[in-house]
# Entry
Amino acid sequence: MTDAKKPRNLERERALRVLRSFSSGSEILSLATAVQESIGYVPPHVIPELAQVAELTSEQALTRIEQHPALRLSPPGRHQVTICTGKTCAGAGGARLVRIARQILDINLFRTTSDEAIRIEPFKCIGKCAMAPNIRINGDARGAMNEERFKLLLAALAKKP
Ligand code: FES
# Structure
Protein backbone atom coordinates (compact mmCIF):
# COMPACT_ATOMS: atom_id res chain seq x y z
CA MET A 1 0.00 0.00 0.00
CA THR A 2 1.48 3.38 -0.99
CA ASP A 3 1.29 6.35 1.33
CA ALA A 4 -1.41 7.85 -0.87
CA LYS A 5 -3.57 4.75 -0.33
CA LYS A 6 -3.06 4.50 3.43
CA PRO A 7 -6.35 4.84 5.31
CA ARG A 8 -6.73 8.23 6.97
CA ASN A 9 -8.17 8.07 10.41
CA LEU A 10 -10.24 11.24 10.67
CA GLU A 11 -10.79 10.70 14.37
CA ARG A 12 -7.05 10.86 14.95
CA GLU A 13 -6.70 13.91 12.71
CA ARG A 14 -9.44 15.66 14.65
CA ALA A 15 -7.85 14.83 18.01
CA LEU A 16 -4.47 16.12 16.83
CA ARG A 17 -6.10 19.31 15.55
CA VAL A 18 -7.49 19.88 19.06
CA LEU A 19 -4.03 19.37 20.55
CA ARG A 20 -2.49 21.93 18.20
CA SER A 21 -4.58 24.62 19.89
CA PHE A 22 -2.72 24.03 23.18
CA SER A 23 0.75 25.17 24.12
CA SER A 24 3.52 22.97 25.45
CA GLY A 25 3.25 22.19 29.12
CA SER A 26 -0.55 22.34 29.16
CA GLU A 27 -2.28 20.37 31.87
CA ILE A 28 -2.88 16.77 30.73
CA LEU A 29 -6.48 16.62 31.98
CA SER A 30 -7.36 19.81 30.10
CA LEU A 31 -5.93 18.30 26.93
CA ALA A 32 -7.71 15.01 27.40
CA THR A 33 -11.00 16.74 28.20
CA ALA A 34 -10.76 18.86 25.04
CA VAL A 35 -10.10 15.78 22.92
CA GLN A 36 -13.01 13.95 24.53
CA GLU A 37 -15.33 16.90 23.97
CA SER A 38 -14.38 16.89 20.30
CA ILE A 39 -14.65 13.18 19.50
CA GLY A 40 -16.39 11.55 22.43
CA TYR A 41 -13.44 9.82 24.09
CA VAL A 42 -9.66 9.85 24.40
CA PRO A 43 -8.25 7.39 21.86
CA PRO A 44 -5.27 5.46 23.29
CA HIS A 45 -3.40 5.96 20.00
CA VAL A 46 -3.14 9.72 20.65
CA ILE A 47 -1.74 9.33 24.19
CA PRO A 48 1.86 9.85 22.96
CA GLU A 49 0.88 13.17 21.39
CA LEU A 50 -1.10 14.20 24.47
CA ALA A 51 1.90 13.34 26.62
CA GLN A 52 4.23 15.32 24.39
CA VAL A 53 2.13 18.49 24.64
CA ALA A 54 1.77 18.00 28.40
CA GLU A 55 5.50 17.34 28.69
CA LEU A 56 4.91 13.99 30.38
CA THR A 57 5.81 10.43 29.48
CA SER A 58 3.07 8.39 27.80
CA GLU A 59 2.82 6.25 30.92
CA GLN A 60 2.33 9.30 33.14
CA ALA A 61 -0.29 10.73 30.78
CA LEU A 62 -2.17 7.43 30.60
CA THR A 63 -2.18 7.02 34.37
CA ARG A 64 -3.59 10.52 34.89
CA ILE A 65 -6.32 9.93 32.29
CA GLU A 66 -7.22 6.50 33.67
CA GLN A 67 -7.60 7.97 37.16
CA HIS A 68 -10.05 10.63 36.02
CA PRO A 69 -13.62 9.32 36.36
CA ALA A 70 -15.05 11.49 33.56
CA LEU A 71 -12.52 10.50 30.92
CA ARG A 72 -12.87 7.40 28.81
CA LEU A 73 -10.33 5.54 26.69
CA SER A 74 -12.79 3.61 24.55
CA PRO A 75 -15.48 5.01 22.28
CA PRO A 76 -18.92 5.34 23.77
CA GLY A 77 -21.74 3.36 22.25
CA ARG A 78 -22.44 -0.35 21.91
CA HIS A 79 -21.99 -0.24 18.13
CA GLN A 80 -19.45 1.70 16.09
CA VAL A 81 -20.55 2.62 12.58
CA THR A 82 -17.72 3.95 10.44
CA ILE A 83 -18.60 5.43 7.07
CA CYS A 84 -15.89 5.78 4.45
CA THR A 85 -15.77 9.32 3.15
CA GLY A 86 -12.77 8.78 0.90
CA LYS A 87 -13.15 10.17 -2.61
CA THR A 88 -14.33 6.93 -4.25
CA CYS A 89 -16.80 5.99 -1.53
CA ALA A 90 -18.12 9.52 -1.09
CA GLY A 91 -18.81 9.73 -4.81
CA ALA A 92 -20.43 6.31 -4.88
CA GLY A 93 -22.94 7.15 -2.15
CA GLY A 94 -20.86 7.37 1.04
CA ALA A 95 -21.59 11.07 1.44
CA ARG A 96 -25.29 10.27 1.22
CA LEU A 97 -24.87 7.51 3.85
CA VAL A 98 -23.35 10.07 6.21
CA ARG A 99 -26.36 12.34 5.75
CA ILE A 100 -28.76 9.43 6.30
CA ALA A 101 -26.97 8.35 9.50
CA ARG A 102 -26.97 11.89 10.88
CA GLN A 103 -30.63 12.34 10.03
CA ILE A 104 -31.93 8.98 11.29
CA LEU A 105 -29.86 8.92 14.47
CA ASP A 106 -30.13 12.67 15.04
CA ILE A 107 -26.46 12.99 15.93
CA ASN A 108 -23.36 14.48 14.35
CA LEU A 109 -20.25 12.59 13.34
CA PHE A 110 -18.04 11.47 16.24
CA ARG A 111 -21.11 11.36 18.47
CA THR A 112 -23.21 8.63 20.08
CA THR A 113 -26.97 8.31 20.31
CA SER A 114 -28.43 9.28 23.67
CA ASP A 115 -29.21 5.64 24.48
CA GLU A 116 -25.52 4.81 23.82
CA ALA A 117 -26.51 2.37 21.05
CA ILE A 118 -24.66 3.74 18.02
CA ARG A 119 -21.66 5.96 17.42
CA ILE A 120 -20.96 7.27 13.91
CA GLU A 121 -17.60 8.24 12.57
CA PRO A 122 -16.17 9.07 9.14
CA PHE A 123 -13.01 7.50 7.79
CA LYS A 124 -10.94 8.44 4.75
CA CYS A 125 -10.54 5.29 2.68
CA ILE A 126 -10.48 1.90 4.35
CA GLY A 127 -8.55 0.43 1.40
CA LYS A 128 -11.49 -1.33 -0.27
CA CYS A 129 -12.35 1.24 -2.92
CA ALA A 130 -13.46 -1.43 -5.43
CA MET A 131 -16.39 -2.17 -3.12
CA ALA A 132 -17.46 1.48 -2.66
CA PRO A 133 -19.33 2.73 -0.81
CA ASN A 134 -17.93 1.02 2.26
CA ILE A 135 -18.92 1.14 5.88
CA ARG A 136 -17.65 -0.75 8.91
CA ILE A 137 -19.79 -2.00 11.74
CA ASN A 138 -17.82 -2.69 14.88
CA GLY A 139 -14.74 -3.07 12.68
CA ASP A 140 -16.24 -5.41 10.08
CA ALA A 141 -16.24 -3.95 6.57
CA ARG A 142 -19.46 -4.02 4.55
CA GLY A 143 -19.03 -3.04 0.91
CA ALA A 144 -21.37 -1.94 -1.85
CA MET A 145 -23.68 -0.43 0.74
CA ASN A 146 -26.91 1.02 -0.50
CA GLU A 147 -29.29 3.34 1.29
CA GLU A 148 -31.97 0.75 2.02
CA ARG A 149 -29.54 -1.80 3.45
CA PHE A 150 -27.88 0.93 5.48
CA LYS A 151 -31.17 2.06 7.00
CA LEU A 152 -32.05 -1.54 7.89
CA LEU A 153 -28.64 -2.06 9.48
CA LEU A 154 -29.01 1.08 11.59
CA ALA A 155 -32.46 0.00 12.72
CA ALA A 156 -31.17 -3.45 13.65
CA LEU A 157 -28.18 -2.05 15.51
CA ALA A 158 -30.38 0.34 17.47
CA LYS A 159 -32.26 -2.65 18.90
CA LYS A 160 -29.24 -4.91 19.36
CA PRO A 161 -27.79 -5.14 22.86
S1 FES B 1 -12.47 5.55 -0.69
FE1 FES B 1 -11.26 3.78 -0.57
S2 FES B 1 -12.45 2.42 0.60
FE2 FES B 1 -13.62 4.20 0.53
